[in-house]
């Protein structure tokens, strides 16, 4: 176990250079829930864009498109009608976030299964985790080692009942071993664990993050770094630290919408121009 210090991942943060264009910089997709629950995906998408993904596209059920379209600018939008269509439409993505406000139903299971067949690194959060309560093996069967699960303690218990009794660090490591994916066990001291045994505990947790939607922002931040091909463990560590730093810098009154807007300041403090 180590402390999640920027020294671990700072040198691996992705920055654009003169030859970069938006497609080479990294394409992030975020899958939205239904028309009455699109805010979570929009938060994730904006966070991914702020983290440097060159192109971010929301994928939504057809009836949600008229809700989302007036609420996005740089972020693009593609409706999909079923899981097969989602798999086709997301083929070009480097990373995908799925789960925030996705719905606790078979459509979410089918969508995760469908996108897992493609090459994109996945960040699976919220309903994308909870929907596998009692059948976590179905989720683990479709994961790759570059995928990232981001459970809070409630979601963790649904996927790994009783495991938390071992303590948060051991539990996160064992969960990562079982899932064969990176696990981000969220909380005041978020633990990031990888299947190869890497494990880091986040030291700069900010209680201002105890507000609805802050986890959705974190999933988009991780996705933004994955889209830029950062190693998944490093991406999860970097996003977790930057997320907390942004919340501390904003302080009282912070809501989740403020977090993406704080990211440039934190990123600037980590950027070392040549
Ligand atoms: N703008 C939007 O559209 C937003 C949409 N959102 C979306 O809404 C969906 C459902 O969200 P949700 O809050 O109802 O579900 P979930 O977080 O599972 O809580 C259910 C129960 O779990 C328990 N629990 C135990 N430990 C916990 C912990 N550490 N943190 C939190 N809970 C913990 C706790 O039980 P208790 O402790 O109260 O008995 C709690 O009552 C989901 O898809 C999400 O993405 C949100 O992201 C917000 C912004
Ligand atoms: N008291 C706290 N101290 C530090 N971080 C917290 C605290 N409460 C919540 N967080 C952080 O806020 C985020 C909440 O995520 P989550 O529970 O998934 O929220 P949501 O589903 O509303 O987006 C996580 O990154 C978690 O680590």
From TrEMBL:
AMP binds at residues 186-190, 215. Belongs to the NnrD/CARKD family. InterPro entries: Carbohydrate_kinase_pred_CS, CARKD, Ribokinase-like. Residues 1-23 are annotated as: Disordered. HAMAP family: NADHX_dehydratase. Its cofactor is Mg(2+). Catalyzes the dehydration of the S-form of NAD(P)HX at the expense of ADP, which is converted to AMP. Together with NAD(P)HX epimerase, which catalyzes the epimerization of the S- and R-forms, the enzyme allows the repair of both epimers of NAD(P)HX, a damaged form of NAD(P)H that is a result of enzymatic or heat-dependent hydration. PROSITE patterns: YJEF_C_2 (PS01050), YJEF_C_3 (PS51383). NCBIfam families: yjeF_cterm (TIGR00196). Keywords: ATP-binding, Lyase, NAD, NADP, Nucleotide-binding. Its EC number is 4.2.1.136. Residues 5-270 form the YjeF C-terminal domain. It catalyses: (6S)-NADHX + ADP = AMP + phosphate + NADH + H(+); (6S)-NADPHX + ADP = AMP + phosphate + NADPH + H(+). (6S)-NADPHX binds at residues 40, 152, 216. It comes from the Bacteria. It comes from Brevundimonas albigilva. Homotetramer. This is ADP-dependent (S)-NAD(P)H-hydrate dehydratase.
């Amino acid at each position: 176990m180590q402390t999640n210090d920027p020294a671990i991942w700072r040198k691996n943060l992705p920055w654009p250079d003169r030859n970069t264009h938006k497609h080479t910089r990294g394409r992030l997709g975020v899958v939205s829930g239904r028309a009455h629950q699109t805010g979570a995906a929009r938060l994730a998408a904006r966070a991914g864009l702020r983290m440097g993904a060159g192109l971010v596209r929301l994928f939504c059920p057809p009836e949600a498109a008229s809700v989302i379209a007036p609420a996005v600018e740089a972020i693009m939008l593609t409706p999909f009608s079923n899981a097969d269509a989602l798999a086709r439409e997301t083929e070009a993505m480097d990373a995908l976030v799925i789960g925030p406000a996705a719905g606790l139903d078979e459509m979410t299971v089918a969508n995760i299964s469908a996108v897992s067949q493609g090459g994109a690194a996945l960040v699976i959060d919220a309903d994308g985790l909870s929907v596998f309560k009692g059948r976590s093996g179905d989720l683990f069967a479709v994961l790759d080692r570059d995928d990232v699960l981001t459970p809070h303690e409630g979601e963790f218990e649904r996927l790994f009942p009783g495991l938390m009794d071992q303590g948060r660090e051991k539990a996160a490591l064992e969960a990562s071993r079982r899932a064969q994916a990176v696990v981000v066990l969220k909380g005041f001291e978020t633990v990031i664990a990888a299947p190869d045994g890497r494990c880091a505990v986040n030291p700069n947790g900010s209680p201002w993050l105890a507000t609805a939607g802050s986890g959705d922002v974190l999933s988009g931040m991780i996705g933004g770094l994955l889209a830029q091909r950062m190693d998944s463990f490093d991406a999860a560590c970097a996003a977790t630290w930057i997320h907390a730093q942004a919340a501390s810098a904003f302080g009282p009154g912070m809501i989740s919408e403020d977090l993406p807007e704080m990211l440039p300041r934190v990123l600037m403090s980590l950027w070392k121009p040549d």
